[in-house]
Write the structure tokens for this entry.
Amino acid sequence: MRRVLRIYRRSLGAHLRAVLEYEADFWILVVAGLLFQVLNLVFLSAVFAHVPALNGWSYPEAVLLAGTFGFINGLGPLFFEGTWRLARRINHGELDYPLVRPVNVPVQVISGGIGMHGFGDVVGGGAMIGWGLANAGIEWTPVKIVGGLVMLVSSATILLSLIVIGNAVSFWVGGPHPVFAMTLIRTADMAKYPITIYGVAVRAAFTVLVPYAFISFFPATWVLDKEHSWIGLLTPLMAAYCVWLARTVFRAGLRRYDSAGH
Amino acid sequence: MKPYLGLLRMSARRVLAYRMSSVILWIGGATFLAGSLAVWHALLADGDIGGYDWDRMKAYLLVGWATGALGSAYGDWWMANRILDGHVATDLTKPLDYQWARFSEHMGGLATEFIAIAVAATAVMALTDGLPLPGPGQALLFVLSFLMVAPLKFAIAYITTMVCFWTQNFMGVSWAKDAIVTLFSGALIPLALLPAWLAGPASVLPFASITATPAAIFLEQATGWEALRLLAVQAAWVVALWWGARLIWRRALRALTVHGG
């Protein structure tokens, strides 16, 4: 395990150095990531200038929710960007290279790139979390601080697992673009608002079928002591399940890989 | 004319060759539309916001989504990658006008989009008890303004991809463009609801012609001379950006570096 982590760190570090060579590109990506968080904030502030609450969520609470989602979303490009290149590698038969190296294949795939727009998302989302927490009138207890942190880690684990699962589906779908993963992760965007605004079918699907609601909604309801907040406590369990599922799907896909002929 | 039609046909075929990808992308687009409908349904539950009730907002969101979807799937990444790969060098050797050639390809890429937009419009009408529809004259103006969105979005995308002559990566540029267009076109939220410091620039930038103009005509907020004025502004932007792109192109060519061959 230590060896795997070390290789992950070194591979990611190599990509980071490569990206930093192009300074203009780096800044454009960071600003682009930040702009999207600003967009979320503009939307919420424009809307809340006209209404006091969105389905029982006040402005600071909604900012906290959207910020959490943005923050966790930014971790994908920063730490799992290589996963998005899996479809292309399968399509071009380039997965042969990781397969013949004496290192765990998923680690080589996951650390195969770094997206600096994640940096903008993390900074923008983080600022929104900070502002939301300070203004939502939360009564802090030690349990809440520890629980909140555990949930943040669990939520991140869930989203990163979904990225792996979505991209591993490329083993079956084919084509050079990870369209399934793009759709899977884009749909997650719906979870940046309180999921109570959606119909029963969507709520059920987001809780049980694809656990988008555990990425930001249930953890936030727990921290804010809202209705059904106990479901937030299931987040770590859901995270463990997602990790297991991602591992299983990736392995099954890898067994199916048949290169592309050169 | 003939080679350009050939390019148009080829790019339409390319879209149709990756049917599965298109379908999955459209499902993604549909969930986005459903999401924004749900958000606004909840927001409007307690009454109007800035003159928009649920019926009008539904129509606004549908027009906004459709204008956003037009030409978004292919075009710009295709153009950007040719510049980044250096393939643009072979394009330059062809006896075609580069901008017209890319425009033809862009229009060919719209092949599936009108179908998808029709499907989405039908679904919204069926699932949310209809839409307020404009009268026949107004509908004609709306169609004109909607069709003008295609060349307008092409010009903006074309100018954006030319940034690739100076940078090595298109993703950040494309996202920054998307963010700016989403905000200032009115696709994020109707421009009337924006705070004044954002509504001001939005009214003088070309992006309002992408979403705000077709939506205002569809919702009959702009009728008669006002509608014609908005159409004229749209047309003026198409022409201005088209010729502006030519100027930038001339400069960009000087920055072109292609390694190896």
